[in-house]
Each structure stands twice: as C-alpha cells, then as structure tokens.
C-alpha cells in the first residue's frame, strides 16, 4: 500500500495532459492530497495549494507522487534532485513512469540511506501465478470498451462512488498506473507477462464475503490490434458478474491505428460477453458509459438515448449525467447479491 497523504509533483509541465496522473488523484481522492509541488515555468495547476517539501512533511504528507509524464516515460533531470530531497525529508516516492525509480543511482541511494520506500506502480509483483478460473466469492463489475482511452477508469470510479452513496459496499480495483495511485494499490496489467494477466486480475480482486462489489478498471479493447491481449486477460481473470461498455461517439478510428475503424456497440458488447462467459457463464451487461465531451448537452442526450434504445440498456455520460441509471440496472439485476457473494455463486 502507498501511504497517504500525498504531495503531488507537477514539475515544469506546460501541457495539462502531462499531469493527468496527478489530476486523477486530485479529482478522485482530494482528501489524500496535501498540495502540489511545481517548478518554475510550470503552466498547469490542479487547483491545489503550492506546498514545499518541508511544509508538506509538517502537514503530515507521507508520499511524493510523481505526477508528470512524458512520451518516453522517463524521469526528467529536474525531477531527480526533488525526489532526493523528498526522500531526505522522510517521504516515500511513487511513480507511474516506465523508468524505475531505483534505476536512478541518486534516488536509490537516497532511499537506502533514509529507509524510505520507492513505489514503481508499473512494476508487477514478482510472485504472480497464472489464472485458474476457479469461481471465488464476491460480486464483480468490469468496464470494457470499444477502444482504449474511452473513460473506463473514470466510469469505474464513478460507479464506486455512486454505489457507496447508496450504502452498498464497493471498491475500485486498479489495473493501470493512474488508478493505482488513486486507489493506493493494484497491478498495472500492461506490464504483466501475458501468461499471468488473468492471474494478476484474480489477485487484484480476491474473494469477498460482504455482499459488496469490486469495480474492476478495464484496459484496452478486444478490437484493438495492440491491446486486445490485455483486455482478454482481464475478462477472464475478473470473472465479472456485470459489464459496463465504454465508448466515445465520433472517434474516427482505433486510437493509434488509422485504418482500423471503431467497432459497433452491439458487436463489442456481444464479443465481450462471449469472452467473459469462459470464467463466468452468468455475466450480464448492465449499462453503457459515453464520453460526450465533444458534443453539446442536447447532442449528448440524443446519442445516449439512441444507444439505450439500440442495446436496451441505460446509457449515460458519467461526467455530465452521473451513473445512477446504470447503478439502478446493476442493483435490479443482482438484488440477491449478498447471498450470491456468500455462496461464491
């Protein structure tokens, strides 16, 4: 577990997308954020107070989160002395970059001399085992998509929040680097050797006996030529009882692969249900989540209504509309969820 509260490092970022990891933590776990740390020249903000390392420690911060990212996924030269200073001040450090913190000699040495922990959230556990597909107790929902970067993490977190607001036990289970920093634990499945993806997912969402729900963050798409393997491993390891399909209307092609059109909603849902039945024959779809950020409110409402009619499922934009209709459908499908969970289905 990554210890909170956090100090969020933004470096000298000039592009809002470069700090999306930190933004996700600030948006979904604001109670864990002491403040932000920006270098001269930084042009973005999370709306948090600017706090220096020593002051953050006085206020109770436990971990410095490296919230900036770049195309290569490596630490910037400017970040290294900041990380060393944080370790010397008594903070742990967590990063979602591809470059491992411990591979930087100055960082590794500072962690060792201060007895502090380094969290490379893209580094999977060394003791993973292959998935077995053995039914386990508990109720699980997995978000899936027509493409990658469709809002699966946001939708999963919105579902967790909405269920908890109704008094239903629910836990977000992270499978990507930003999700892990939000949740405090998880496994980045895109860094797991292919044979172990389903086993990693079984570990992320173990048996539970309280009648609650694990909301498992989906990744990629069964239709994406680059990431379908990760998506399939998640489907099998999650053993989902319910699926929510995520989609961005109007996307011209699969992300990063022009010439590969985005599949239709019905086809995508059918393929995901078919694949999921390998480890849970009773899986059902309970809703559709749209990213309608490119459309007006009226257009967004129309698009969601059309999708709802096509699939006979509630369709909402979690940002604009919330997810209450999807939660209604979920709970109506699993009114006996406590007994199902206790019996392991």
TrEMBL record:
Pfam families: DUF1611 (PF07755), DUF1611_N (PF17396). PANTHER family: DUF1611 DOMAIN-CONTAINING PROTEIN (PTHR40690:SF1), GLL3100 PROTEIN (PTHR40690). This is EBNA-1 nuclear protein. Residues 49-124 form the D-glutamate N-acetyltransferase-like N-terminal domain. Residues 136-327 form the D-glutamate N-acetyltransferase-like C-terminal domain.
């Amino acid at each position: 577990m990554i210890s909170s509260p956090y100090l969020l490092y933004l470096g000298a970022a000039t592009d809002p997308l470069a700090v999306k990891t930190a933004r996700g933590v600030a948006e979904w776990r604001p109670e864990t954020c002491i403040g932000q740390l920006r270098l001269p020249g930084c042009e973005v903000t999370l709306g948090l107070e600017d706090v220096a390392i020593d002051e953050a420690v006085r206020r109770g911060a436990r971990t410095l989160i490296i919230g900036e990212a770049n195309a290569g996924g490596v630490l910037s030269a400017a970040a290294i002395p900041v990380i060393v200073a944080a370790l010397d001040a008594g903070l742990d450090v967590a990063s979602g970059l591809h470059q491992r913190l411990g591979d930087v000699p100055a960082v590794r040495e500072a962690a060792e001399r201060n007895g502090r922990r380094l969290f490379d959230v893209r580094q999977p556990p060394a003791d993973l085992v292959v998935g077995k597909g053995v039914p386990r107790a508990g109720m699980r929902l997995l978000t899936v998509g027509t493409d990658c970067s469709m809002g699966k993490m946001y939708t999963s977190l919105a579902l967790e929040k909405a269920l908890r607001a109704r008094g239903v036990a629910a836990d977000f289970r992270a499978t990507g680097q930003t999700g892990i920093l939000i949740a405090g634990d998880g496994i980045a499945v895109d860094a797991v050797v292919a044979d172990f993806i389903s086993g990693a997912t079984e570990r992320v969402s173990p048996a539970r006996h309280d009648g609650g729900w694990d909301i498992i963050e989906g990744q990629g798409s069964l239709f994406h030529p680059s990431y379908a393997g990760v998506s399939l491993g998640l489907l099998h390891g999650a053993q989902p009882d319910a699926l929510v399909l995520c989609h961005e209307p109007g996307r011209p092609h699969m992300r990063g692969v022009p010439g590969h059109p985005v599949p239709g909603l019905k086809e995508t849902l059918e393929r995901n249900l078919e694949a999921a039945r390998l480890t849970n024959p009773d899986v059902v779809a309970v809703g559709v989540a749209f990213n309608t950020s490119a459309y007006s409110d009226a257009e967004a409402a129309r698009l969601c209504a059309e999708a709802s009619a096509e699939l006979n499922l509630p369709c909402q934009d979690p940002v604009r509309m919330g997810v209450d209709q999807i939660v209604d459908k979920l709970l109506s499908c699993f009114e006996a969820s406590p007994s199902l969970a206790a019996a392991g289905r």
